[in-house]
Amino acid sequence: MTTLETTATITTTADEADDDAASVLTTRYQQSVAEYWNKEKHPVNIRLGEVDGTYHHHYGLGDVEWSVLEGDPAGREDRIVKELHRLEAAQADYLLDRLGDLGPADRILDAGSGRGGTGFMANQRFGCRVDGISISEEQVKFANGQARQRGVADKVAFHFRNMLHNEFPDATFQAVWNNESTMYVDLYKLFAEHARVLKPGGRYVTITGCFNDVHGRQPSRAVSQIDAHYICDIHPRSDYFAAMAANDLVPISVVDLTAATIPYWELRAQAAVASGIEDAFLTAYKEGSFHYLMIAADRV
Ligand code: GPP
Ligand code: MG
Q1: Residue range 250-295, pLDDT digits in tens
Q2: Beta strands in the chain (DSSP E)
Q3: Which domains does the chain have, with CATH numbers?
Q4: Which atom of ligand 1 is nearest to the CA of 184?
Q5: Probe target for ligand 1 pocket from 36, 37, 55, 58, with the most ligand atoms within 8 Å of CB
Q6: 14 CA distance to ligand 1 centroid (A)?
């Protein structure tokens, strides 16, 4: 397909058309991150998404059904892919469980919305309008295409925007979440922007990987390997609470999900779709230098 043909097939909403790359991607770092996600087509994400058409960009939670490794070897890989996808969907459900009481009249925001998976699950569950933002134009296009295919484009919309300056009016949302996307941004700037667009009494939830301050102020080798793999900058655990306290976000629940995500990584390490980062996660979690954490906070 030529560049001209590619351009001709792009359909944009009014919201997307508002934003040009220079105003959304304000640093070389952000440009690099956008480039990674614009090109990203890892089987560990695409094949899992194809299981039921819901594409996630986060990891899994819960006990593995290890029997997927047994039985007919011809179907083994498909069984592993389905099981990994089931655990990733369970992770998204866990996050949505913590957004509080939401109804069809509410608006909610997914900051770092990827290919849209958590946002579509939120719309199905709460029936409300969902906005997602991503600095990857390819992800935004993909997710808006999914919204049209699913017949929910009037309720679920994705925007090429930066979560540090999201362009929504003050006090728009009853809930905002980051599902594994905070490690790309400065937390003080992020939480200031979230506090601005959250309604008073609104809920913020993140599931994140953070490094353990108890081991010092620098990330371990395994955590540094994860940073290099994704071009991200994993924060220490303490930064989350300091940045929330500085921005009117008061934690109501903090859960260490490390033990609940390790089985996902142990299964993923045995899959043909493994990406090569599995051993770094397993090492970091098992040596205690890294946690998988859920934090829910109220906007006061
Ligand atoms: C997973 O996305 C999340 C990130 C890349 C952010 C980093 C998260 C941490 C907890 C450190 P993905 O589903 O695209 O990753 P993968 O391709 O490895 O499945
Ligand atoms: Mg993935």
Answers
A1: 999 999 999 999 999 999 999 999 999 999 999 999 999 999 999 9
A2: 107-111, 129-134, 156-160, 173-179, 198-211, 249-256, 290-299
A3: 4-299 (3.40.50.150)
A4: 6
A5: 58
A6: 30
What pLDDT score does 18 carry?
54
Specify the pTM.
0.93
Of how many residues is the chain composed? Answer: 300
Distance of CA 134 to the CA centre of its chain: 10
Q: Give, as one character, the DSSP assignment of residue 185.
A: S
Q: For 76-94, write each residue's pLDDT tens digit.
A: 999 999 999 999 999 999 9
Tokens read off for 157: 């919309």
Q: Is 157 helix (H, G, I), strand (E, B) or coil?
A: strand
Low-confidence ranges of the chain (pLDDT < 70): 1-18
3-state SS assignment for residue 234: coil
Q: What is the dihedral of CA 294, 297, 118, 160, to 10 degrees?
A: -120
Can you tell me which residue has the tokens 């260490």? Answer: 256
Neighbours of 226 (CB within 10 A): 21
Q: If 0-12 CB within 10 Å is exposed, 13-18 middle and 19+ buried, where does residue 37 land?
A: buried
